[in-house]
Amino acid sequence: MIQFQKKKVKLKLKTKKETKKKLVKAFPGVKFSFNNTILDISKENGDILAMASAGSIDLGNKKITYTKKGTPFMAEKVAEEIIRKAYEFGINNVKLQVKNIGASRDIVIKRILLLEKKSLNVEALIDRTPVHHGGYHFVKIPKY
């Protein structure tokens, strides 16, 4: 009988090193409501890089309920999280876009502007809050 011997072959795979492209400019968008605060970071062309909201923040073993997501404390934690993600992408210059009103609007803006002194350069603060011009006109009741 003929017996075949198995040869052990070692393959060496070469992998490319993954390098993250550092972004120079980004647009953090902040959407406020009375129930939640949502922040995201997008490129100049509109692609979203990272997103954070009050429900996605981990506070250890504390459960975040609906009423606590709209508080200024949670908005401050969301701002810290999105700033940390901006550092990971190497973002230096930002144009902050703010939309709607909420209890924590001023706190988030101040938190991001305070980091301007350290390393985050805020070039512009854009307010995109919708403004009603004229409002809704009620239908007239017919007179008999």
TrEMBL record:
<dbReference type="GO" id="GO:0003735">
    <property type="term" value="F:structural constituent of ribosome"/>
</dbReference>
<dbReference type="Pfam" id="PF00411">
    <property type="entry name" value="Ribosomal_S11"/>
</dbReference>
<protein>
    <submittedName>
        <fullName>30S ribosomal protein S11</fullName>
    </submittedName>
</protein>
<dbReference type="GO" id="GO:1990904">
    <property type="term" value="C:ribonucleoprotein complex"/>
</dbReference>
<dbReference type="GO" id="GO:0006412">
    <property type="term" value="P:translation"/>
</dbReference>
<dbReference type="InterPro" id="IPR001971">
    <property type="entry name" value="Ribosomal_uS11"/>
</dbReference>
<keyword id="KW-0687">Ribonucleoprotein</keyword>
<dbReference type="GO" id="GO:0005840">
    <property type="term" value="C:ribosome"/>
</dbReference>
<keyword id="KW-0689">Ribosomal protein</keyword>
<dbReference type="InterPro" id="IPR036967">
    <property type="entry name" value="Ribosomal_uS11_sf"/>
</dbReference>
<comment type="similarity">
    <text>Belongs to the universal ribosomal protein uS11 family.</text>
</comment>
